[in-house]
Amino acid sequence: MTTTKMSKRDLRNLSVPYTSLRPNLNQQDVIVLPDYYHRPNENNRCLAFTGIILLLSAALFFLYPSDPTLQLARIQLNNIGVISSPKLTLDLSFSLTIRVRNRNFFSMDYEKLVVSVGYRGRELGVVSSEGGGVRARGSSYVNATLDLNGLEVVHDMIYLIADLAKGVIPFDTNTKVDGVLGLFQFKIPLKAKVSCEVYVNTNNQTTVHQDCYAEVRNQFLVIPLPLQLISRCVNHIARMILTRRICGIA
Fold first, then answer.
1. Across residues 125-147, what is the average pLDDT?
2. Cα 185 to Cα 74: distance, rounded to the nearest angstrom
3. Would you say the pTM of this structure is higher than 0.85?
4. Share of the chain residues as helix, strand and coil, in percent rounded to the nearest 5
5. Which residues are CB-contacts of 69 (< 8 A; sequence separation ≥ 6)?
6. 215, HSE (Cβ side, Cα atoms, 13 Å)
7. Buried b (16+ CB within 10 A) or exposed e, 209-223
8. Is residue 146 over pLDDT 80?
9. Once rounded to an integer, what is the mean pLDDT over residues 133-156?
10. Torsion angle in degrees (nearest 10) through CA of 44, 47, 52, 58
């Protein structure tokens, strides 16, 4: 086999000349975008879940039962007398006005309202009123009179004499009420209790100062089953949203 050696000049003569293409002024650039897939079902489901949460939250707000609130609106000392014969006793007469407020959107009925009055931790007497009703989001005022005759105050006589000399006597009052809230076909028991320390002026039989505090209890134990199911459903949907299972959140 014979090999012919060619020079660079011969190679240039054998090559095909290159001619650059002229630009086409009428040519337009085209950008191809991927197809966008719209998922209407995801949006509709998101709106539906949002609407359900709003409706259930509103139902809980309006139907969630709340215990009534009690307020010692007025306490008046009608009479106080110390009897020394045949033994040392005390006669007292009180007039009390209790305000019962229903915070629910349904009416409430109560069987009775009980008020006890004490002096320095010792109960002096108890008075109860008849039952009644309070309209939805309304208040009712209950009047009661407590007459205490022949109270033996031998152990507290020193304190009582000192308080009479100052013209102000501290009394303890405990007020409680048991009621029932009619929610559709359910009867939800309600309770309320308030304790007050009241300072009464013996000269004009008016209240000088009072400190009250209400007793709070766990109401979830008495909530009917439908409201508990609504509460659990709202919590479950909220957890689904937070864990990105709905509304198409990536």
1. 90
2. 37
3. no
4. 25, 40, 30
5. 100, 101, 103, 192, 194, 214
6. 12
7. eeeeeeeeeeeeeeb
8. yes
9. 86
10. -160
